[in-house]
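Checklist before submission:
- one chain only
- standard amino acids only
- sequence pasted in full

Submission:
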Amino acid sequence: MTRQRLPDRRPSLTTELVHECRSYSVTIGFNPATGRIGEVFTHGAKVGSTMDGILDDACIALSLLLQHGVEPAELGSSMGRLGDGKAPASIIGALADLLVREAQS
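Returned file contents:
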C-alpha cells in the first residue's frame, strides 16, 4: 500500500474521550478529497509523562495505518478487549473504537 499524504490544511473534529475515568482530548483529521479519517491526535496525559509519549507514538502509528489504507473498523477489531469481549483493554483500543464510531457517522 502507498501512503496517502494529507494536505497541510484539512478538516478536523475535536472531541472528548473518557477511558478509565480519565478525560482525553482527541482531534481527528479528515482527507478533504475522500472524507476518510487520515490522522488522530490525543492530549490529556501529563506533558512529558510516559503515558504522554505512549499516546503520541500510538497516534502516529494509527495515523500511518489510516494513511496506508487500513480501515478504522480493521483497527478496532484488532485491538485487545477486556473479559467482557467489548470494552477496550487500553487507551489505544479506546482510540481505535472512537475512530470506528466517527467513520460510521
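Reviewer check: The chain has a mean pLDDT of 94.
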